[in-house]
Amino acid sequence: MVNHTQSAKSISLEQYGIKNANVQYQLSPQELQDITIEKGQGVKASSGALAVNTGEFTGRSPMDRFIVKDDITKDRVWWGDINIPFDSDKFDKLYNKVVDYLSEKEVFVRDSYACADEDYKLNIRVINEFPWSNMFAYNMFLRPTEEELKDFSPEWTIVNAPDFMANPEEDGTRQHNFAILNFEKKIALIGGTGYTGEIKKGIFSALNFILPVFKNTLPMHCSANVGKNDDTAIFFGLSGTGKTTLSTDPDRSLIGDDEHGWTAENTVFNFEGGCYAKVINLSQEQEPEIFAAIKEGAILENVKMNDKGEVDFEDTSITQNTRVSYPIYHIENIKKPSIGKNPKNIFFLTADAFGVLPPISKLTPAQAAYHFISGYTAKVAGTEAGVKEPQPSFSACFGAPFMPLHPTKYAEMLSKKMLDANVNVWLVNTGWSGGSYGVGKRMKLKYTRAMISAVLNGDLGLYNYDDYHIHSVFGVAQPRSCPGVPTEVLSPRATWKDDKAYYDTAFKLANAFRKNFEQFEDNASEEIRRGGPQRYAY
């Protein structure tokens, strides 16, 4: 048996309805790793990181995410396929079943907080069935000092029971797994899934409601870093578009890799205390900072290893969504505290598998609002069953699954902030060039990095005809030259061998943009509607 010492402070969970539990409170990551290995729930990789398998679910389950419909949420939440209502009485019954299930078990409890800015701090208590889930909470939330723990008063509670299976007929869920937010009781209830992303995304979703509704602060699904001149850059993008990779820059200090707030005081703060990066095809050469962060204290999820504990990052036999979580201090160049000022540039990242969007283009305020509401990227063949050719994928505000309000609410806040702060907005295609997926090639990371550096250094010239070409289908302004990037790469049409094929594909994507935007048109201004592609295919 591993002999682990409990924190000097012990706590009872009786007030949550969890009775006679063996409470392991505020254990260190090392203790939690030892217990995980002792229980046979994980193994140590050669790097020193803990490797676990999250079980049946290796990603989030958006169809099983619910929000309790109550006096706080009923008239504010944008109800539908993304924000699915859950009955208050059903929640109470299910909650009671989960806490009964956790009673008399060993449970792992951690007090932590979200939001690096003191004025926006949210105290969280996390109650986990598994030790490695609690270690994930240590990595991903902000860590209170011993002094702060003395008078710690949790505002929100996460109850996380991966091995508890709901009964859909009885409990009102869709299937045996669920992630439910209750704003009245300030509880995130998660069961039936071991995927740790549900833990962080539960609190992220709660903040996406709390901050704009009660704190006049824009929540953003983005990464952020800051330069030596205190200029903050923000990177929006869906999973797999390069948020974590591109914001982890040796020449700039990382604020955070996924979730931020932009305050009325024009500061940008990280929600989290760690990073949760995709590791598919990770290499030391391409992403040295993330590679080096995979060491003792990090948790690898659903990766394949050999007998020596060496990870094969190209192996996707368990899932394409292989991950690592690590505390932010595993990255050398970080901003302390995780707060930046003076946002100067915003990058919207998209992995365009059709290969028709420019690798970088400058957006007008109307185009920025349109592309923010659209949140475009593309799915490629092989990532999901039945996907044979590229498919457009739209996620409003680059984070629809976590946005409880109507997307135009966030877009209006962003538009106002962009104008007030005089921010430049750029659309960056980290996807395909020279043809669609299967014909063209993925944009070289070194080119994307060079384009972003050029923006941050002010090397892309003024917004005029000499320096920019207006794309004939999408209307965005693509630079004619960029240091470190071949000129032909900057024009997507020039990289294709067949002009007709290029325009046919570009119109196909433009039409997909328009079709997707129909759901927002009633709530969007004429100016924003004109921010989309204006030319129609005949």
Looking at this protein, list some descriptive labels.
nine-stranded mixed sheet, disordered N terminus, alpha/beta, 15 helices, 538 residues, 25% strand, eight-stranded mixed sheet
Largest sheet: 9 strands, mixed
Number of helices: 15
Task: Bin the helical content.
Answer: 25-40%
Distance, first to last CA: 72 Å
What would the principal axes of the Cα set say about the shape? globular
Low-confidence stretches: 1-8
Instruction: Specify Rg, calculated over alpha carbons.
Output: 23 Å
**Total DSSP E strands:** 30
pLDDT average, as an integer? 94
Strand proportion: 15-25%
By helix and strand content, what is the structural category? alpha/beta
Describe the structure.
This protein is 26% helix and 25% strand. By secondary structure, the chain is an alpha/beta fold. The strands form seven sheets. Strands 11, 12, 13, 14, 15, 21, 22, 23 and 26 form a nine-stranded mixed beta sheet that branches. Helix 9 (365-374) runs antiparallel to helix 10 (407-421). The longest helix has 19 residues, at 499-517. Mean pLDDT is 94; it is low at 1-8.
